Amino acid sequence: MDQSVIPPLHDRAAATRALIAALVQSIGQARAVAKPFFHLELDHVFPEAVYEAMLAAMPVAADYRPMHGRSRSNDLDDGTHTRVKIDLFPEYIRHLPADKLTIWRVIGDALCSEPVKEAFRAKLAPGLEKRFGRDFASVGMYPIPILTRDIPGYKILPHTDTRWKGITVQLYLPADDANTDIGTIFHDVLPDGSMPKAAQMRFARNTGYAFAVGDDTWHSADTVHTGVKTRDSILLTYFVDDAPLKVLRNRGKRLGNFVLNEVRRLT
């Protein structure tokens, strides 16, 4: 690790504080783009030494579990799941080897921090105000960070995210820029109902995007082609957390996923 950027990882609290500061700075420097809907484009998300440590500590295939929801429709004919995940909460990653656990604990804790949430909230103000009104800053948001892995065959058709979600963030984790053509696609919606491609994010090293979820945030992903071994990224979703039912749902979902993950490991 670059000691001038992040303290030694064995000092987890200090490393997490330093990473939070770096992420807040990166979010503050993100490009704000108005079309086809308001979104952010991020570069150099993580300090380079941290990024390299993340790549070196990638979990093995057996550490992941299937992604549910829309991803189920992409299972291959032999049952192979084309999108799998690991929740970056302490209770999920605790089974990782010690050297991998250390870096992913720091990453997960930093992504769940209040300063990072408030940085996204401030930078995404136009989109959040459009969705929630002038008092958007008072709307509760519950962060769930997951490390995802897609393999050839994965795709997702144009869609808007569920209204349970307030902010969607995806941080790309390729080792190089050899396959920038598999990034997320943003769509226009024309009067005739068609949804042409309006923009495409580059699946490039240490980059990402973010948007406030709305009824116009149509996005998709083309089929991951066979020139790609894995399409690794972090999905950081902020779920709306502003009413008792939503608070209970968000925490209950975390607990339920933890139980399922433990059962999977035992079986």
Q: How would you portray this structure in words?
A:
The protein is an alpha+beta fold. The chain has one domain (12-266): Sandwich (Jelly Rolls). The protein is built from seven helices and twelve strands. The chain has helices spanning 12-28, 48-56, 90-93, 98-111, 114-123, 125-132, 244-266, and strands at residues 31-33, 39-42, 65-66, 83-87, 141-150, 156-159, 165-172, 185-187, 197-200, 208-212, 219-221, 231-240. Helix 1 (12-28) crosses helix 4 (98-111) and helix 1 packs parallel to helix 5 (114-123). The radius of gyration is 18 Å and the shape is globular.
CATH level-two architecture: Sandwich
- CATH topology, what is it called? Jelly Rolls
In terms of DSSP E residues, the strand content is 15-25%
Question: In CATH, what is the homologous superfamily?
Answer: q2cbj1_9rhob like domain
Extended strand count: 12
Structural class: alpha+beta
Side by side, the strands of the main sheet go 1-2-10-7-12-5-4-3
Mean pLDDT across all residues, rounded? 92
Supply the CATH class: Mainly Beta
Radius of gyration: 18 Å
Summed up, the domain count is 1
Distance between the termini: 37 Å
Largest sheet: 8 strands, antiparallel
Molecular shape: globular
Low-confidence stretches: none
Which percent bin holds the helix content? Answer: 25-40%
